[in-house]
UniProtKB/TrEMBL annotation:
Protein name per Swiss-Prot or TrEMBL: DUF4276 family protein
Superkingdom in the source lineage: Bacteria
InterPro entries xref list: DUF4276
């Protein structure tokens, strides 16, 4: 069985990997092992590059038969994170993601070398985990117990080419849009519930960058 360490930004991402992705990948003989960034017991967040470097090094050097990937939001990355300032000047969502991931990977390679980095699959969620949940607005509304919001969520989704393009600011990030209409939205509680209701197939169909990431992990079994 192939092992893949998944370094997660927070509890929402960790739970999503454990409850939504892990079962699907286990059927392909790929064992996903999510863990929050930082020391055991830490709640995640505060995603400085130095902390990421430590975690990636520990996983690739400490488990030499395993792979490592990342699952964190672009939205919350600090300005000092490799590639973030340059990415902000890019016009499209794809260009921002490519710019950031190239810079992050290059900086990790500078510290860790090519041998370790051959087992690393970089990923950043554009712009935020909740963007994935807009893959099916009606099921999102039902999952959080607010079916009356399905038309409003549909209006938000239809304003963008992809859920991954729902934008990046304290007022317009995907989670902020949900909170504007439902103050009781709690990321760790509702994130995986909504994702399970929506279904992984629907999310992959609507979110090409997310789908590409999973395709790369699936290819490890070939």
């Amino acid at each position: 069985m192939i092992r893949v360490h998944v370094i997660c930004e927070g509890q929402t991402e960790e739970t999503f990997v454990a409850e939504v992705l892990a079962e699907a990948f286990a059927q392909k003989e790929i064992f996903l092992m999510p863990a929050l960034i930082g020391k055991p017991g830490h709640k995640g967040g505060n995603l400085r590059f130095e902390r990421l470097l430590t975690d990636v090094r520990n996983r690739l050097a400490g488990d030499r038969d395993a792979w490592c990937t990342t699952f964190f939001d672009y939205y919350g990355l600090p300005g000092g994170f490799p590639g973030k300032v340059a990415a902000e000047t890019m016009r499209t969502t794809d260009d921002k993601a490519v710019c950031l991931l190239q810079a992050m990977t290059a900086e990790l390679r500078r510290h860790l070398g090519d041998n370790h980095m051959r087992r690393f699959i970089p990923y950043v969620q554009m712009y935020e985990f909740e963007g994935l949940l807009f893959s099916h607005p009606e099921r999102l509304a039902d999952a959080i117990g607010q079916p009356a919001l399905n038309q409003e969520f549909r209006r938000i989704r239809d304003a963008f080419d992809s859920p991954e393009s729902i934008n990046n600011s304290p007022m317009t990030a995907p989670s902020k849009r949900i909170l504007n209409h439902f103050e009781g939205y709690d990321k760790p509680v509702y994130g995986s519930i909504a994702a399970l209701e929506i279904g992984l197939a629907a999310i992959r169909n609507e979110c090409p960058r997310f789908d590409e990431w999973l395709n790369r992990i699936e290819a490890l079994a070939q």
